[in-house]
């Protein structure tokens, strides 16, 4: 399984992906699912992947190949993020058609992809790309997308996240969303890849890998458990009509 | 969809079920999914149901019919909760075999059931009964079961719940688990049915129905959002290596 989450907020992008892949619980590996591309000062593109690893690796390799051999269209020839999403969607659709042309089990090979970034002179965008190649974009009403194992980490996002919150608040909120997911589903696992992009900065952030021993993540995970336990204690006692 | 949660703790049982059923988003109804049986001073049995409504209603009706017409075995002839779970499991399996004997779509008619209670002289028990008629029991290590839409409400249970916590703390924790689920999935809906049973009390609690206007539930839901927002603010700021 996988959990990827991407936020497109007023001030920038917050992107986090886990790295665990599994073919059964006895076959667990670490693979990067957050990929970055770009030209400093001109464009930043991030791609997060969930689903069949052969499929999503093929998509990333095709996109990288097009860049290496200057095949157009490619990620650096696209005029805006919409064209980037179109290219990613078409690549995903083509890869899936190649793989599944001889099989009925299309679902097993499927994948989904988040595409985020900004090209100079254009709006910063976040797209959720489906296996059919089509996609939707994040808005101020719905400023985030999740792919993979999204449910455990959704309540904190639904309660705390809003479009105009500062990026450091949003980053903490998303890290807590991951912590909740890690605790409830062993198929989502550390290390995490986290990345923050400031709007109009046009840099390619290196991002941070968060491992088992990461002191900051360990600290907020522990403090969050304490917050929840204390918060529950501070709720008013149930009224008497609960006890009849 | 449905969300039912049942806790078997040192001091007693906490059971909550939602009441929303849906055949598509344009066909939503209210049906009770928390059913109680018993003989004051002698036995208390609660059954929570998820899945196909025709299937689960049939199971409850068969169990009730056996009581009405004194067909044995029935819920009041069972010697302990294990025999109760066996009876519920066999009834569910038989109903499913009847319904699906002429169809391939077994999944669409399936259901799952939580059975909790205590019979005088015996341990209080909680069982998770599968469509195949078999079942598992809650333990001190894993003191709770969920059926239906369980994921959104699981993180708070995983963090805060433990076997020896007081029932009022456990009730608040479970109500928050429901509040998180209600916010993230419209197919789980108010009113909720909540019930607390004290070990060795052998009463049949009436329980409480929690509707849209319930002042206590509204209050803790609001306070919990505030707790989470404040808790996020109080987390230490992300370290500098997140911003590269």
UniProtKB/TrEMBL annotation, chains A, B:
InterPro entries given in the database record: Ntn_hydrolases_N, Proteasome_sua/b, UCP009120_prtse
Any single GO BP term: proteolysis involved in protein catabolic process
Any one Gene Ontology cellular component term annotated for this protein: proteasome core complex
Name the record gives this protein: Proteasome-type protease
Lineage, highest ranks first: Bacteria, Pseudomonadati, Pseudomonadota, Gammaproteobacteria, Moraxellales
């Amino acid at each position: 399984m996988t959990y990827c989450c991407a936020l497109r907020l007023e001030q920038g992008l917050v992107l986090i992906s886990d790295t665990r892949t599994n073919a059964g619980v006895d076959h667990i590996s670490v693979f990067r699912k957050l990929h970055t591309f770009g030209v400093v000062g001109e464009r930043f593109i991030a791609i997060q992947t969930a689903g069949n690893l052969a499929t999503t690796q093929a998509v990333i390799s095709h996109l990288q190949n097009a860049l290496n051999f200057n095949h157009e269209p490619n990620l650096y020839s696209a005029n805006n993020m919409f064209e980037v999403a179109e290219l990613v969607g078409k690549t995903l659709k083509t890869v899936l058609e190649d793989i599944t042309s001889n099989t009925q089990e299309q679902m097993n090979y499927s994948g989904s992809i988040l595409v985020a970034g900004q090209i100079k002179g254009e709006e910063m965008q976040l797209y959720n790309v489906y296996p059919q190649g089509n996609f939707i974009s994040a808005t101020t009403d719905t400023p985030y997308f999740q792919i993979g194992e999204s449910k455990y980490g959704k309540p904190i996002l639904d309660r705390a996240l809003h479009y105009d919150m500062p990026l450091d608040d949003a980053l903490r909120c998303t890290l807590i969303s991951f912590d909740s997911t890690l605790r409830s589903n062993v198929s989502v696992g550390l290390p995490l890849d986290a990345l923050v992009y400031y709007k109009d900065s046009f840099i390619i952030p290196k991002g941070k890998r968060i491992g088992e021993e990461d002191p900051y993540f360990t600290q907020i995970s522990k403090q969050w458990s304490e917050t929840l336990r204390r918060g529950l204690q501070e709720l008013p006692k149930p009224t008497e009509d609960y006890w009849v």
